[in-house]
Amino acid sequence: MSGDTSAAAASSAADHDGVVGPGTPLLEVRDLAVEFRTPEGNVRAVDGLSYRVAAGRTLAVVGESGSGKSVSSLAVMGLLPDTARVTHGEVLLAGEDLLSLSRREHRRRCGERIAMVFQDALAALNPVHTVGYQLTEALRRRRGMSRRDAGRRAVELLDLVGVPNARGRVKDYPHQFSGGMRQRVMIATALALDPDVLIADEPTTALDVTVQAQVLRLLAEIQAERRMGLVLITHDLGVVAGMADDVTVMYAGRVVERAPVRDTFGAPAHPYTRALLHSIPSSGAGGDGEGRRLPVIPGRPPSPAALPTGCAFHPRCDTARDVCRTDPPPLEAVAVDRASACHFAAEVLASHDVPPPVEHEEAAHD
Amino acid sequence: MTDLSTPTTAARAPARPAADAWRALRRRPDTVIAAAVILFFAVMAAFPGLFTGTSPRACPIRDARLDPQGWGGAHPLGTDALGCDVLATLVHGVRPSLLLAVVVVGVSLFIGVTLGLLAGYYLGWVDYLVSRTVEVFLVIPLLLAALLVLSLFQGVDLGSGTFEVILLPAIVLILFGWMPYARYVRASTLEAKNLDYVTAARSLGASDLRIMVRHVLPNAIGTVTALLPTSVAGVISAEAVLSFLGIGVRPPATSWGIQIEQGSEWVTGGAPHILLAPLICLVATVLALVVLGDALRDALDPRLAR
Amino acid sequence: MGRYIARRVLQAVGTLLLVMLLLHLLTTVAIQLNGNPAQAFFGDKVASPTQLAAVEQRFNLDDPCFDQVGNPCLGPFVERLGQYARGDFGTNLRGREVSDIVAAAAPNTLRLFCVVLITWLALGMVLGSVAARRRGSTGDHGIRLTSVLIDAFPVFVLLIVYRYVVAVPLHRWAEETFGEDSWPPYWFKPSFDADHPWATVVVPGILLGLAGSAAFIRLVRAGQLEAYQGDHVRAARSKGLAERHVVVHHVVRNSSVPVVTAVGLTFAEALGGAVITEGLMNIYGMGGVLWEAVRNDDVGLVLGIVTLLAAVTVVVMIVVDIAYAVLDPRIRYD
């Protein structure tokens, strides 16, 4: 089944310009910074994030928890908690800066033009309302759709995301669905208003491994069919390999590498990306009986409240040198369409320390 | 799968929750004042002689309803309708009320914690038995039960010692007051039971009793501790109501409830101090306890504070 | 849903039987400990021979089990259940049927509880919601302080102060300002007036409701705070719905579930409060009758009313459970 997914993604990529190419992207984030107020002072959770998504393309935003990837998507949707605020940057949706709009106007663009799929569907669906109600809530409230039309549309939406017996299930409550079906319902709610851009925040993390592949495939199909822009937030590089066209790797709130997926997986330009790729267990390597130990990244991600000086990754980096401890590396182009925030990007890129190939997301799940 | 998520330093759990709670409490002036008020009345209950030299039972009828004379006068807070000194009655009325409250809350707590712990830990028929019993006792409101039982046992003579005068109200209030503790402790036991270190302790062969006391109970006790001051306040006001009705603390012992009952008739009769003196003491005590309970709830359950 | 209700009702019948047994056992012990069994029903009062005979007949005091301390006296218990089933809850000292007294008194208690319930929900929902929305603001702190103060004034104290200190001058003032035949003087009348049951029950009802409202304020605040931070509220916002809609259908709607549960738990406490309120304000309701019965040492009447009120509590708890299941679908399909 992963063959289908890759094919769909490849075909959509073929007739499109690259993300960094000309033409107005659907969604563009420019130099976004988000701060949290804490009792210990302001903490910068996202610092200088930029990315672009065009119609029919998938961008993966990759990072460990606490790297700011989820916070940035909340900022795009205008859903940041009260303790957080955007300190600078722009979020351009078809050329219009969402952050300069009033809260209310910003909210109106959400759902309609840009929608979000949440990580934990059980928590994100309201337990006290039927699935049908939640699917068409926005249609009825915002488009004034009649109850009967809404009912019909709810069945269509459930059909679309492949929930069996859709007609019988619209009156059911979220807790009566299995995890995978619930996530499909979540995706259907996001699709209700036909958005141009979909942000999926770790859409499969809470699911069983076997169900993950199905849900991802559904997302890829829907995206190809509707030519949506998809921002896929994940920590799973297997998912990235199977789904995404481009990848943005975040570490401690900053972008460390930006590149087309194929290029990165072939030759990473940042030590962090390289380490991430190395820590994917691959079925091929595991099967040869050598008993090779899976390399891990030493240490743990830094707290945003206490970032190391210089390059934030230097305490865990295998190629760190003195300059890394003092000077933060800027994000600079290293090849066509590629950028890396490492003082030794060219060296890393040239080393061709290529991890075992990851072709399909299933490969990583075995 | 390639799960890279490792816990960040954000999960910095306090090493000693009790110490943290204590520090949080000391920082708040309202808590300090509340504690001082409670201490004041506690000292009054223990050593009434420090506050008045007059006996509450010396009641010359010709001195009835004297106005308060201020400190230094023979009757600083005046006298009541029978000529008894209001201050002396007040001071000697603290002991039964406070003693009753402490005994009731202490014993209910013990019963509730034990049953809740057993029910939550063993589940099965123990839990069924405890849960049904809780349900049955919850159906009869505390005050109604007290009214019924105290009326029924009115004729049974128990004596007039310090403990005897509060024995009957204490039994009733305990009998119908232990259920909240059992419910809370049962719920937190269910939660704590499945924590990894409890499972670990069990797999290492620790006895049930040891696991309950050393591992489960400390987790469960937090929420219950926050209930205590409010419960003490509840018992004090319940006692006032019962005494007002003449079925609480038994004469010749006095209590604030009895004083309030006697004073209520004289407010419009030109002697409001007979009512106001015990009423103000009652409110001050209850207020101090409630403030303390509120602060304790914050300190022990930071989820609600914010 | 139907099966859920049936199961709950069945369970409640069991609870009710156990409650009756508990009350019976308490009564029995009291009778056994009292040197003279019949005297247990009169407290310190000296009862007339006819009254003693009536009690002996009603409670089967001739049964030898009442002379053996510790004997549960199950025979008389079964007989008592039969009487209850026929609607016979005994008589008061003057021979009037308890069921008659209750029928006359219950409407006033219902009136009182209407006012109490409205006060709870209005105060709890409004103040709790405001506190949750403006978390950490001056308003939040003010509301919090208010709820602590409410807790610090038990119903008993509130009513004593109102009845003996506030009501009389307020009533006089209202009479002078609005005239004797207008409504305001009745609101502040320090005692119940059977000709104006609603007007004279409003202020006591509000005071009783106020005393219980602190728990509601806290509960609504905590529930809504949790809801505001919940993923489903975030998801609803991401659909671009208006904030008002999100608050009503996702925050308030979800926080109504614990509030209903609290109504059930607070009801028993409020019944106790109703006894104090009706007693102090001379309201002729079930609580008022109970209060007077305690003062007059009419233990038979006390027993009858407490039994009835326990039955009422069981019914209220079923209703609350059903409302809970209606509001929260997760319960329904267990």
From TrEMBL, chain A:
Region (Disordered) residue ranges read: 1-22
Q: Name one GO molecular function term.
A: ATP binding
Q: Where in the cell is it found?
A: Cell membrane
Family designation? Belongs to the ABC transporter superfamily.
Could you tell me the membrane topology recorded for this protein? Peripheral membrane protein
User: Which coarse location class describes where this protein primarily resides?
Assistant: membrane
Q: For the ABC transporter domain, which residue ranges apply?
A: 27-277
Q: What is this protein called?
A: ABC transporter ATP-binding protein
The record ties this protein, via Pfam families, to: ABC_tran (PF00005), oligo_HPY (PF08352)
Q: Which UniProt keywords apply?
A: ATP-binding, Cell membrane, Membrane, Nucleotide-binding, Transport
| The organism's taxonomic lineage, starting at the top | Bacteria, Bacillati, Actinomycetota, Actinomycetes, Micrococcales
Q: Where is the composition biased (Low complexity)?
A: 1-13
TrEMBL record, chain B:
> Which CDD domains does the UniProt record give?
TM_PBP2 (cd06261)
Q: Provide the alphabetized UniProt keywords.
A: Cell membrane, Membrane, Transmembrane, Transmembrane helix, Transport
Which superkingdom does the taxonomy of this entry point to? Bacteria
Chain segments annotated as transmembrane: 32-51, 98-124, 136-156, 162-181, 220-247, 274-296
Q: Which InterPro entries match?
A: BP-dependent_transpt_permease, MetI-like, MetI-like_sf
Protein location: Cell membrane
Q: How does it sit in the membrane?
A: Multi-pass membrane protein
Q: What is its main location?
A: membrane
Question: Domain named ABC transmembrane type-1: which ranges?
Answer: 94-293
Instruction: State the family named in the UniProt similarity comment for this chain.
Output: Belongs to the binding-protein-dependent transport system permease family.
Query: What is the protein's name according to its record?
Result: ABC transporter permease
The top of its lineage is: Bacteria, Bacillati, Actinomycetota, Actinomycetes, Micrococcales
TrEMBL record, chain C:
Q: Where are the transmembrane segments?
A: 12-33, 110-131, 143-165, 198-220, 259-281, 301-327
- Asked if the Swiss-Prot or TrEMBL record annotates the protein with the keyword Kinase, the reply is no
Read off the InterPro entries from this record. Answer: MetI-like (IPR000515), MetI-like_sf (IPR035906)
Determine if Disulfide bond is one of this entry's keywords.
no
Q: Where in the cell is it found?
A: Cell membrane
Q: Where is the ABC transmembrane type-1 domain?
A: 106-324
Membrane topology annotation:
Multi-pass membrane protein
List the Pfam families hit by this protein, alphabetically: BPD_transp_1 (PF00528)
Q: Which UniProt keywords apply?
A: Cell membrane, Membrane, Transmembrane, Transmembrane helix, Transport
UniProt lists the family membership as follows:
Belongs to the binding-protein-dependent transport system permease family.
Q: What is this protein called?
A: ABC transporter permease
